[in-house]
Design goal:
The protein has one domain: Arc Repressor Mutant, subunit A, CATH 1.10.10. By secondary structure, it is mainly alpha-helical. It contains five helices and three strands, in the order αβααββαα. A hairpin with a 4-residue loop joins strand 2 (62-65) and strand 3. The chain has a three-stranded antiparallel β-sheet. The longest helix has 20 residues, at 94-113.
Length: 115
């Protein structure tokens, strides 16, 4: 199976956007969506969908419900969507952000040492 690089990331972003729309449309129960309808809307299923939902679940931005395989966005997911700085950033980019902070701190320390 040949997958497009970044396709998982794009799928996760699409899942989050869909769940956020469901939250806005039906705030009660935080916009619950079934896996089946999500798979149909996003044109994916099986292991590709499952691994990405598991990832989002591990990050704490979605909840998976046992009843009828329902999924909903968490408050953490809502906060991320509402406070996202740009469409290209994701809650999944925290490692990249930490690497940039580390690089900046190293630069500051080197600057202080050279004084």
């Amino acid at each position: 199976m040949n997958e497009i690089p970044g396709s998982d990331r794009n799928l996760r972003q699409a899942v989050m956007q869909r769940l956020y729309r469901a939250f806005l449309e039906d705030g009660l129960y935080r916009g619950v969506v079934s896996k089946k309808s999500l798979a149909q809307e996003l044109g994916t299923e099986g292991i590709v969908l499952e691994r990405n939902l598991e990832y989002l679940l591990d990050r704490g931005v979605i909840s998976m419900h046992k009843i009828e395989d329902l999924i909903s966005i968490t408050t953490k997911g809502i906060d991320w969507i509402e406070h996202s700085a740009s469409a290209s950033s994701t809650p999944l980019d925290e490692i990249d952000i930490l690497k940039k902070i580390e690089k900046l701190l190293k630069s500051i320390l080197e600057n202080l040492k050279s004084r």
